[in-house]
Design brief:
552 residues; alpha+beta; three-stranded antiparallel beta sheet; 21 strands; disordered C terminus
């Protein structure tokens, strides 16, 4: 499991430096090949006296000299903004009364035409949540000869106008990429200490390749920013060995790492800027980074300790085969506590109530306040864990012996043709049929299907390419100006559909005349879009009856 948290305040940065977490393991260390640009060394301990340097990095200042590296971006203060939807409705209503269009009312004013188009897109995307600066609203209304008071009441206008010149600094100081490992590895974490660090280093190196670049020029409004390679990311790593405790117990074994990365990168052109699309590529690759770290950990533990793996029923997680399920359940108290808090919130919401992801996460975090946040020495934690295992009938030494050397030689990697169907099955419930899936998403799915793990990011990328090519996935047309990493998007037959060049097994085929591709429809499958046909010219697509719509 992997997740990204934006660090948008000094308090969030300090929390990751001072670390109130009671299960923090080894000392934090500097990470990122970009540290050499500011006179710091990756792998060196992050000492207490270096905390000001770490804070400076997050402020986009040189950690040694304090010199600003990136000019802070300012934007209109939220108090000086108004909802966009009332303005759009007022413009459209006036245009209807005048028997014309809003575009015609705006005349041949380039700014007004472009700003109105952005307004329409914003309202379509965000509806009543989209807001515009009061200065833009007044100027746009004036260009259309419409009184802005038709859209807003007097008090709201007065309040927004009073803050017209107010500005706020817009920035994410950095990001926290949290990567967890399966519970069985945490139970036997004494085996994984060095291997965990190596796996996280490999994951970081991959993230630097995916998100460690900068952009030059303006992006948006028909203009495309230019991608510039970076010299590496900058930040530090924190390690955890125990979860937050629940009342009456020490924290359960819980191995993980937090890669705290500054939203900062130096391009090969010598300029500093925000990392890959302002951190967007970090979010896009979070699952791939977590999957890569766990796949590397499986490979290292298998090679060095003969660990065998089994898939946890009902999930894609791979656990150490010799760790009994009752032990995994025993050492998941924090998970059970968080689940109970979410269930309580669901019950309070009523029979028809639902919780968003943020509400579930908030309920889980609130439950953590009931635990004892006092850190325990590692030897005390281990003694408690051994006692708990014995209390339910397991001898810690016997469990460890059953895990070590259980694997006789390395596991054979499944063939790409065998990985593809399982990848589709896992992706179907969460992948939109209208947008396909990206190479970054495919990589995370593929890595979950290899029990033997991988040698590194290059091995993961090559395997993903083999699975995509061998599965018949259709690469969709590239989006203009797309500068993101692994952004190629693919379409696969939804659910149990297959791609095939054979026609003899198909009943009632129907020809799709677009782009000359033969689209063979089974049952009640509906139309295939022209974009897909154009991207698959010369191939034959066969769709199963469960397909409702393949609009890509």
């Amino acid at each position: 499991m992997a997740r990204v948290t934006a660090l948008d305040s000094a308090a969030m940065v300090n929390q990751r430096l001072l670390s109130p977490h009671p299960g923090v393991g080894r000392d934090p260390a500097w990470i990122g090949s970009g540290l050499r640009e500011v006179g710091l060394e990756a792998g060196a301990p992050l000492l207490a006296e270096q905390h000001p340097a770490a804070e400076a990095l997050m402020e986009r200042r040189h950690p040694l000299t304090g010199e600003p590296l990136v000019t802070a971006k300012v934007a209109t203060h939220p108090r000086a903004k108004v909802a966009a939807e009332p303005l759009l409705k007022a413009l459209q209503q006036t245009a209807a009364e005048r028997a014309t269009t809003v575009e015609a009312m705006l005349g041949e004013v380039p700014w007004a035409q472009e700003r109105f188009a952005r307004l329409v897109r914003g309202v379509r995307r965000e509806r009543d949540r989209h807001r515009v600066p009061i200065a833009d609203a007044e100027r746009l209304a004036a260009c259309a000869a419409v009184d802005v008071a038709l859209a807003y009441d007097r008090d709201l206008l007065q309040a927004a106008r009073a803050s017209r010149r107010a500005r706020v600094v817009v920035r994410n100081r950095g990001f926290d990429l949290g990567i967890d490992v399966p519970k069985s590895i945490s139970v036997l974490y004494a085996l994984a200490d060095e291997q965990l660090a190596a796996a996280m280093e490999d994951a970081l190196a991959a993230v630097e390749g995916w998100a460690g670049y900068g952009l030059r020029g303006q992006h948006g409004g028909g203009r495309w920013a230019r991608r510039v390679p970076g010299t590496g990311l900058l930040g530090w790593a924190r390690w955890t060995v125990a979860a937050w405790p629940v009342p009456g117990h020490v924290g359960d074994p819980f191995l993980g790492a937090h890669l705290v990365l500054a939203n900062l990168v130096r391009g090969t052109d010598g300029r500093w800027s925000a990392m890959g699309a302002g951190g967007r590529d970090l979010y896009r690759h979070a699952h791939a980074a977590g999957a890569l770290a766990n796949a590397r950990l499986r490979r290292l533990l298998s090679e060095r300790h003969g660990i065998a793996w089994s898939r946890r029923p009902g999930t894609s997680a791979r656990e150490i085969a010799g760790v009994p399920e009752p032990l995994r359940i025993l050492f998941s108290k924090r998970y059970r506590q968080a689940s109970a808090a979410v269930a309580e919130a669901l019950a309070a919401a009523g029979p028809d109530g639902r919780l968003s992801f943020k509400q579930r996460d908030r309920s889980s975090l609130w439950s953590r306040e009931y635990g004892d946040g006092v850190a325990s020495p590692l030897e005390n934690l281990r003694a408690s864990w051994r006692d708990q295992a014995r209390a339910i009938g397991y001898n810690p030494r016997s469990v460890a012996r059953s895990c070590l050397g259980a694997l006789d030689g390395m596991l054979a990697r499944p063939a790409p043709a065998d990985i593809a169907p399982r990848m589709w099955q896992r992706a179907a419930p969460r992948t939109s049929s209208t947008s396909g899936f990206s190479r970054a998403e495919a990589m995370a799915l593929v890595l979950g299907e290899v029990p033997d793990g991988v040698d590194g990011a290059a091995d993961a990328a090559a395997l993903t390419e083999q699975v995509l090519l061998g599965s018949g996935a259709i690469e969709l047309p590239a989006r203009e100006g797309d500068h993101l990493s692994n952004s190629q998007r693919y379409a696969w037959p939804w659910r149990h559909a297959v791609l095939s060049g054979r026609t003899e097994d198909v009943s009632a085929p129907k020809a799709c005349e677009e782009s000359g591709i033969t689209c063979l429809m089974i049952g009640q499958a509906s139309l295939v879009s022209s974009e897909m046909c154009a991207s698959a010219t010369g191939r034959t697509a066969v769709f199963a009856a469960s397909v409702r719509r393949t609009s890509l």
